[in-house]
Specification:
The chain is an all-alpha fold. The chain is built from eleven helices and two strands, in the order H-E-E-H-H-H-H-H-H-H-H-H-H. Helix 2 packs antiparallel against helix 4.
Length: 277
């Protein structure tokens, strides 16, 4: 029973060694039903340590009347030498560590060869005197392909109808939900509203009194009158069909809705002129 368990542990350890080698070369590997990538390298190495300890413990116990065969994972093209055989017979745990070190050496050599090949390719495409590729413009940020968050980002662009119109409903729903439930999104919208709208649109009449043939004092009086009449309308809720917001508050509402919904429509209701309008 113990010999069978040791054999299973060694087979699994060999799988972890192979997974570590594949991942270091930038490939993916499947252990059972699990697909591992470079992001799982730490977990793979922890698994190797645990399996090495379990294999060493099982071999140290031994079995009554017979001994389990010790297997040291070696490179497929490399035969076990005399030293490895002696160490394998005396200290199986040390033999496993030697095998792991051998695998790491092979992996480092493979990485070094790959790096040299890349440098040779760069040498054929880079201008003389330049030995590295430097980012420029948006390749430092949103267009980066080297940062961790950008490596697995597979983006695709289509027509305006495909990218926007066909997804407008879902985008609008998610935008509204974020504004209502995510404090970060709420703060972003409100900060943009305050920065862009500020106090809002305000009248600043400048009458060309020379063209109209009036004096500058009379033009100043008309300008003050225009401001007062506009304030009567803008600072009250008379400008709102629902009688809820004044003109400056409506500007903030419109801008916020535009950010949340992607569009905003303003309807102007015409009525009978009032005595003060």
């Amino acid at each position: 029973m113990q010999g069978k368990r040791l054999e299973i542990k060694k087979e699994r350890l060999a799988q972890y060694y192979e997974a570590e080698e594949r991942v270091l070369k930038g490939q993916s590997y499947r252990i059972g039903t699990r697909q591992v990538t470079r992001a799982d390298l730490a977990a793979i190495r922890n698994g190797i340590k645990e399996l090495e300890a379990e294999v060493a413990a099982l071999e140290k116990r031994g079995t009554t009347g017979r001994r389990a065969a010790r297997v040291v994972p070696l490179d497929k093209e490399e035969n076990m030498g005399i030293i490895d055989r002696v160490i394998n017979a005396v200290s199986p745990g040390t033999a496993l560590k030697r095998a792991r070190a051998r695998y790491e050496t092979i992996n480092l050599e493979a990485q070094s060869e790959a790096l040299e090949a890349r440098l040779k390719i760069l040498g054929t495409v880079l201008p003389p005197g330049q030995d590295t590729v430097t980012n420029s413009g948006y390749s430092h940020g949103g267009a980066s392909r080297r940062r961790t968050w950008a490596r697995e980002w597979d983006s695709e662009s289509g027509s305006a109808k495909r990218d926007i119109e066909e997804n407008r409903k879902l985008l609008r729903e998610r935008s509204r939900d974020l504004f209502m439930s995510a404090p970060l999104a709420t703060g972003a919208v409100k900060s943009s509203r305050t920065s862009c709208i500020g106090p809002g649109l305000m009248p600043k009449p400048k009458i060309d009194y020379e063209f109209l043939g009036i004096t500058q004092e009379e033009a100043n009086r008309i300008q003050r009158l225009i401001k007062k009449e506009f304030a009567i309308w803008a600072e009250s809720t008379l400008c709102d069909n629902n009688d809820l917001n004044n003109f400056y508050e409506l500007q903030q509402v419109v801008f916020s809705d535009w950010l949340n919904n992607g569009e905003e429509f303003v309807l102007i209701k015409y009525g009978k002129p009032l005595k003060y309008m």
